[in-house]
Amino acid sequence: MKQSKKTALVLLSCLTAAGSSIVNGTAAASPAAQTGADSSLTIESVVNKTDTIPSFSEVTVHDPSVIKSGDSFYVFGSHLASAKTQDLMHWQQISTVVDNNNPLIPNVFEELGETFEWAQSNTLWAADVIQLADGKYYMYYNACKGDSPRSAMGIAVADRPEGPYKDTGIILKSGMWDDISEDGTIYDATIHPNVVDPDVFFDKNGKLWMVYGSYSGGIFIMEMDPQTGKPLPGQGYGKKLLGGNHSRIEAPYIVYNPQTDYYYLYLSFGGLDAVGGYNIRVARSKSPDGPYVDSAGKDMINAKGADGTFFDDAAIAPYGAKLIGNFKFTALAGEKYTEQGYVSPGHNSVYVDPKSGETFIFFHTRFPGRGEEHQVRVHRVMMNEDGWPVIAPHRYAGETETSVQPKEIAGVYKYVNHGRDISADIKSATAIELNKNGTVTGTVSGTWNKNGKNNVTLTLNGTAYKGKFLRQWDSGAQSYVMTFSALSGDGTAIWGSHALSK
């Protein structure tokens, strides 16, 4: 069982960018510029001499979808790329490109010949893998023409996560212009889905579902046969959850959290390339097939472009709690720091540990000043007091949620507000100080209050944000630091990372 992409009228250049390069090394090695922070703010160290310095190895899998099998995590993505890890820090690449030597699907052009012919494509988009009751692994693959939603989705099956997978055939098609579509009506890209970006999951009652879709007519969900993995008959394209009129919403991923008893629908808004403003958003529901609402209570079914429009970002930007977008942590005045940041992070999957409840988000990201190069990243996800996920500011390095003492909290932080926009703009950190008396000063002002072991409420410029404190490894400082991640009622995420003295 699974433990725990692309559009109408997408530019072909975006498809090329979706898996163009294998990148090794860490992000942004060049020294960062000063932010112009208030030099009167005191920067204190929170380093422990006994800390172990973590290490990382990098892989490139665009649109990584996670499954855990045994003691290993696997991610599968676009262009038949895949990788695995046991500790979420050190990765091993398994496959990289669509060719007949790919170990996942050998002789792939023959094996999936019908799919490539329909999609008029020679590559594959975001895959998803799940293990069903027969113990076999079911890969939901898909191919798309790229400049239209002419796509095909099918299932290939293997005895092992690493394959080889054998095709069982196409299950859905889209883009049949002026012809009968899967629901018996003439295909219309403004209301019908692009059959890509599948995520197949079990709900809390053991029912199997598939959520999918990108741009075009929106995001849809279908109930699946748990024996065959195929859609139950008579559903057409399934039930629509949100989107439409070519709005830039894609990469749906649904995960149930037993601690909150909600289903969380993660989505990527914007364009996937370095100037596309890709960002990760979330909504939730008590039922796997919705309705899904965001943290402000807005029904996501209304998140769509205006009639007659393409890529109407202004219409969709108010919807969904925005958890992460473009950002960079740079050196504050008086601090030695190597810039860290992400550009167009997105197309995520999520894993919830069935025993501990620990939650991790997997996504690909580009980096400031590095073009279309991209790597996989894993971050810890925590639930705030209102039952909404917040993403830890730094990549996972083995940290756990522990009790935090007030004396560990006070000090200067690099502060990022992710905003609500869909934009290529990069949110640069500014300086704020969490004072021992519970006040906040600097580029924003207000108060902070810690309760429980690591819950925090920050009221900044009149807006309340609820989240978590977490001690993390900061690669830019080469040190462990205190961080916070919090979310406002309107779905705006803020991050803080403790600054260090020279």
UniProtKB/TrEMBL annotation:
InterPro entries: Abn2_C (IPR032291), GH43_arabinanases (IPR050727), Glyco_hydro_43 (IPR006710), Glyco_hydro_beta-prop_sf (IPR023296). It comes from the Bacteria. Residues 393-496 form the Extracellular endo-alpha-(1->5)-L-arabinanase C-terminal domain. Residues 1-29 form the signal peptide. GO terms for molecular function: hydrolase activity. Pathway: Glycan metabolism; L-arabinan degradation. Keywords: Glycosidase, Hydrolase, Signal. Belongs to the glycosyl hydrolase 43 family. PANTHER family: ARABINAN ENDO-1,5-ALPHA-L-ARABINOSIDASE, ARABINAN ENDO-1,5-ALPHA-L-ARABINOSIDASE A-RELATED. This is Glycoside hydrolase family 43 protein. It comes from Paenibacillus terreus.
